[in-house]
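A reminder before we start the practical. When you read a complex entry, don't treat the lines as separate problems. The point of joint prediction is that each chain is placed relative to the others, so the output describes one connected object in space. Small molecules and nucleic acid strands, if listed, are placed in the same frame. In the example below there are two entries. Take a minute to note the order of the lines before looking further.
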Amino acid sequence: MTDLTFSYFPGCSQSGSAEEFGLSTEAVCRALGIELAELPDWNCCGASSAHMTDDLLSIALPGRNLAIAREEGKDMLTVCAMCYSRMKIAQARILGDEAVAREVEEVVGADPRFRGEVRHLLDVLVNDVAFPEIRKWLRLPLAGLRAVPYYGCLLVRPPEVCCCDSVENPTDLDRLLALLGVDVRPWSFKTDCCGGSLSLSRTDIVEKMVNKLLTRAEEAGANCVVTACPMCAANLEMRQKPGKLTFKVLHKLPVLYFTELLGLAMGLSGVEEWMKSHIIDPMPLMRETKLLSH
Amino acid sequence: MINAVNSKLDAELEGRTGQKVRACYQCKKCSAGCPVAFAMDLLPHEVMKMISYGQRERLLASSTIWLCASCETCTTRCPNEIDIAGVMDGLRHIAIESGVEPSEREVGMMHRSFLGGIKLLGRTNEPFLIGGYKAMTGNLFDDMGLGAVMFFKRKIKILPRTVKNRRAVRRVFKRTRKMEV
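Here is the predicted structure of the whole assembly.
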């Protein structure tokens, strides 16, 4: 088997608004023998706000992390689709253009030419650990869950730097969920945008985008949405209900991280704790499907 | 004159982003697939055309450049391989450096608040981001109920998570900063 030791870049959300993503990632990796050493003193990748306002800043913020990863000498693992995208794009720019590399080196004060790989956990699970090995660890088939896989934008676009098997119709997450016994519902909105960083500033726009996604998910017969991005999850959960007092339809469709379902199927402890952090409580669904009892 | 091709803005954007907007032949695939098109004042293919016509002021004052969510659907589908989302970034950067206030005031303030938090603590902390944003915009009461739910669901932490070497992060901002954060 390939070496599964990584410098782990947890990302800001995974200890804040997406705590359940961070906890379930660590638990799943521990159980599957994926060794994570947290990248020392990592900083925020800058996300959308950096690249939308300042090109050099958007390369230099991930650049500092890449410089630390270079010192550590291991491949880097991320779980947040946004961190993953920013890290990969910065790495490609730095290694692809020596002038950019020199500029970032001057800004950061360290060598950012990290030549290891930046990986996303979904990619590592599908391509390195691989399904025969994951299957050995499964204890509980997730019968009763009808999920639409929601990749969002940054796991698949731009395809030159991203990891999924297809840019218009990726299936990595579909196949992983099917392995867990989930009924994966076909739908056409796998890679449609949730509105991303407009969530706070133009809530009205994000509500429209999210409600379209949820309506389509329900039409596909789903009783939950599964994602690999904390921004998608936050928008899908927080913007299901209209922000102000109106009489719109509420969806109440649970949104789960793929790592939570993997942990549940592997029978790991702590699953109930992760589920408590969701704004749309997934416990009624878990009880209804008898996957969790209390 | 609006009917005269003017390559100045096109050239400026090529210098910044490496993208040749003049390769656009107006197939409108970008606008057809844009998930935010319904809220834009200029559709993405119109932005491309207006760049070729050097319509700098109208573009920098548009809502579109601030509403583009950078989902990169257009970039992925463009038959002429123009990174349209990258061009939108380029237009935003020109607007900031030319001192043109974002026509989407709240969007600009969100970016300022987000980056201000990173500059201060090195990592993004939801209370700082949301608090800073509310203080800037004065929209204090939006999402109040949601904030309470987030707190009880442990999505908002009281103690901020920070990098140890804050000086290193401040150095990054000091040496790159174009937008006041």
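Discuss with your neighbour: The beta strands of chain A are 5-9, 35-38, 75-78, 118-120, 146-150, 183-184, 224-227, 255-257. What might explain this?
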